[in-house]
Design goal:
- This protein is α+β, with helices and mostly antiparallel strands.
- The chain has a domain of about 350 residues: Outer membrane efflux proteins (OEP), CATH 1.20.1600.
- Helix content is about 55%, strand content about 20%.
């Protein structure tokens, strides 16, 4: 009986089926199929759209077109007591205007290019009268064309676009943070579901052990009945079988509950045909230099570093905002005017300008100063947050490292106990009983102890693998592939 159980334990540690679903296949199935990740991926896509939109909104050409069509009527009376010219003037004007403006800002240096063009074609009718009667009538048609090009470069306030680029720079950091957040959410989800995976494997393994025990107890009962053994032995053994059956029912109930949870996650997978399996001999790869590793690979620490970068970027913007507006501008304009009054006229004018403008509020910007001080203090908060997160990570990693090392020692001890139990004299209890010189109670106690040893070994193995999953999750290496 003992040799059969040891043989079973060895077999149960091997893959159950060529179609079994391994741990890595289980994780990949969740990543490929679960709608939870699609929802989280949408958040990342939204962040990317916002980031690209911020840049496009800043650097894109802004082109506006306007037009005006209308009529203006005016009437003016003028009286001059010292002159003989007292007259009234009536004006009727048809206004037709077209304008367009084209501007572009440059993210690299904060400069702005502007191009504007205005064209008008007004028609003006005028009538003037004095005290002697009608003075005259002039019809005026004018063609006006104005073109202006200018480029402004900030030299102090917003130098190199430090203020204008803030929104985009923060959006880039937000996108990086969202990628890390998505990976962290995925890994937390995977860790949670792997716990269910391991519970299913645990109950399934325990059920096999108990079923094997039940099978051999039933065989012993059949042998006793064939040999017309004592009724007391039959009664004692039947009670043991009933107890084992109750344990089996309890384990099967727990396995069904885990199977229902898994069926929701693994749609289309029949666990009866493709049972779950783990590599029982798998051992965690412990990190020796936790300090260096955390700097390079731990997402929670990277996310705090991103917070620090965002805060520094904000401080830089408010710090620059304290400087005066000091801008260099060059511009060129052309004004063409063609019309006819009583005689034909035409004019054209070109103008070039280069200037430096300085503006500064003597009392400063109180609101800007408040935010500057606020984010400077927030920088210290983030330093403390970083330090706390780093200490927490080291503490959790060291605790799990100890538990994992102890878990291996415990598993080795269980294997040693199993080997000792197999070679001990108590394995002869069944042969002695069947030979008529033993007691069925000794046989049952021997089987109970050995079954308990096997079940405890399964619990210890599963607990080790759960700690292995927790450790890999803490090290942010549980996902098969990162973002």
């Amino acid at each position: 009986m003992r040799k059969l159980l040891v043989k079973f334990l060895t077999l149960f540690l091997l893959p159950f089926s060529v179609n079994a679903l391994t741990e890595s296949e289980f994780v990949q199935s969740l990543l490929d199929n679960h709608a939870f990740f699609e929802k989280e991926q949408i958040n990342l896509t939204i962040k990317k759209i916002e980031m690209e939109g911020d840049r496009a909104n800043y650097e894109d050409w802004d082109w506006t077109i306007g037009g005006e069509l209308g009529r203006i009527s005016k009437h003016k009376n003028k009286e001059n007591n010292t002159s003989s010219y007292d007259y009234a003037k009536s004006t009727s004007q048809l206004v037709r205007k077209f304008s367009t403006d084209l501007t572009k800002r440059f993210l690299s240096n904060g400069s702005e290019l502007g191009i504007s063009y205005d064209k008008s074609l007004p028609v003006k009718d005028e009538e003037m009268h004095d005290k002697d009667g009608y003075q005259g009538d002039d019809n005026t048609i004018e063609h006006l064309n104005d073109l202006n090009i200018s480029w402004t470069l900030p030299l102090l306030n917003n130098k190199n676009g430090v203020i204008d680029q803030k929104t985009y720079d923060l959006a880039v950091l937000d996108y990086k943070d969202e990628k890390l957040a998505l990976a962290e959410t995925k890994e937390d989800f995977i860790k949670e579901k792997l716990m269910i995976f391991l519970d299913w494997v645990s109950y399934d393994a325990q059920i096999k052990i108990v079923k094997n025990r039940l099978k051999h107890s039933t065989q012993i009962l059949a042998s006793i009945n064939q040999q017309s053994g004592s009724k007391n032995s039959v009664l004692v053994l039947q009670r043991s079988i009933n107890k084992t059956q109750r344990l089996l029912l309890d384990l099967e109930s727990k396995l069904k509950a885990e199977k229902r949870s898994l069926s929701i996650l693994l749609k289309g997978v029949d666990l009866n045909k493709a049972p779950l399996e783990i590599d029982w001999d798998a051992r965690v790869n412990l990190v020796e230099d936790l300090y260096s590793y955390s700097k390079q690979s731990i997402r929670d620490i990277k996310r705090i570093e991103i917070e620090q970068l965002k805060n520094k970027r904000t401080v830089k913007s408010y710090q620059n905002s304290k400087l005066p507006d000091f801008d260099f501008t060059i511009s060129a304009s052309r004004d063409d005017n063609k019309g006819n009054y009583s005689t034909y006229s035409k004019s054209s004018e070109m103008e070039y300008e280069a200037k430096i403008e300085l503006n500064y509020p003597l009392l400063g910007d109180i609101s800007n100063q408040v935010y500057y001080r606020k984010y400077k203090l927030k920088g210290r908060q983030l330093e403390l947050k970083y330090s706390d997160k780093f200490d927490d990570f080291l503490a959790d990693a060291q605790k799990l490292t100890i538990e994992l090392k102890q878990g291996i020692k415990q598993l080795d001890l269980y294997q040693m106990q199993i080997n000792e139990s197999e070679s001990s004299k108590t394995q002869n209890e069944l042969d002695a009983f069947l030979g008529g010189s033993g007691n069925i109670r000794f046989v049952i106690n021997d089987q109970d102890d050995y079954q308990e040893l096997l079940l405890d070994q399964v619990d210890a193995a599963i607990n080790y693998h759960k700690n292995r999953i927790k450790y890999d999750s803490l090290m942010d290496r549980l996902l098969l592939s990162d973002l």
